[in-house]
Write a structure and sequence with these properties.
Blueprint: H1 7-30, E1 38-44, H2 50-67, H3 74-83, H4 85-88, E2 90-96, E3 99-107, E4 130-138, H5 147-161, E5 166-172, H6 176-180, E6 185-186, E7 192-193, E8 201-208, H7 209-228, H8 232-237
Parallel strand pairs: 4-5
Antiparallel strand pairs: 1-2, 2-3, 3-4, 5-8, 6-8, 7-8
């Protein structure tokens, strides 16, 4: 019997999308063939798995102290505390030989980005039903073309099952091209300045599940071809990027 409320079709749509994400995860995992396997884990929540969340925080802070100290500035830490960002978020991490090599945070509204710049204050209503991705960080000694997309796939898979319609996040202009490869698009051509993060411009980017799945599928196929054809130079140009 047809579900006039659309419940059955929504369930089928979700099942189809989750199946596509499972295929993506398998393909991305194969990109690391021949290396020590990378293990993805999450979601972790402060209320239920505080030890894992603290582990993510320590990894992230160590990376930021070494390379991106402005993300540990008093102003940024005060904002994190005021919005309870880590406490409200779902955290994901990637590890190799038991050591963390990457992490990512997914947060419901209120979003961090809307508190970072005056030009972003009015953007949040456009993204009702979205989750914010942030704190995507990868150890530079462990970078490969697979850690970042696998973190994104894991986080998006969870967000799908939670009923979100897509993800939104603030990225450096230099990272925009890389995120576009995975289906994110600039919400506008306006460049935003974040006073507590220096002069570099930022772009607000977002993507819905169909956009993310289609683009990520194309990207995974491209990476697979490059790996199989042994094209190390082209392959390395697609190396993952952090969201800082």
């Amino acid at each position: 019997m047809a579900d006039t409320g659309g419940g059955a079709s929504r369930d089928q749509e979700l099942a189809s999308r989750l199946a596509a994400m499972s295929v993506l995860e398998t393909r991305m995992a194969r990109l690391g063939a021949g290396q020590t396997p990378v293990v993805l884990a999450g979601p972790f929540f402060h209320a239920t798995t505080p030890t894992e969340v603290e582990r993510v925080r320590q990894f992230r802070d160590a990376q930021y102290r070494a390379r991106l100290s402005y993300l540990l500035s008093p102003e940024q830490l005060q904002l994190d505390w005021r919005l309870e960002l880590d406490e409200r978020s779902a955290h994901f991490h990637a590890s190799r030989d038991g050591q963390l090599v990457g992490s990512l945070r997914i947060t419901p509204g209120p979003f961090e980005f809307q508190a970072l710049a005056a030009s972003l204050e009015g953007e949040a209503p456009r993204f009702q039903g979205y989750a914010e991705f942030s704190r995507l960080v990868v150890d530079p000694e462990a970078r490969s073309p697979s850690v970042t997309p696998r973190l994104l796939v894991a986080a998006c898979t969870w967000a799908m099952t939670e009923g979100y319609v897509g993800i939104v996040g603030l990225c450096r202009r230099a990272a925009r091209t890389v995120f576009e490869r995975y289906g994110l698009a600039a919400s506008s051509e306006e460049q935003h300045r974040v006073p507590m993060r220096g002069p570099q411009p930022y772009t607000l980017m977002a993507g819905t599940w169909p956009q993310l799945i289609a683009a990520s599928t194309r990207m995974s196929e491209r990476l697979t071809r490059l790996r199989l054809n042994d094209s190390p130079d082209a392959y390395s140009r697609l190396v993952e990027v952090e969201q800082t």
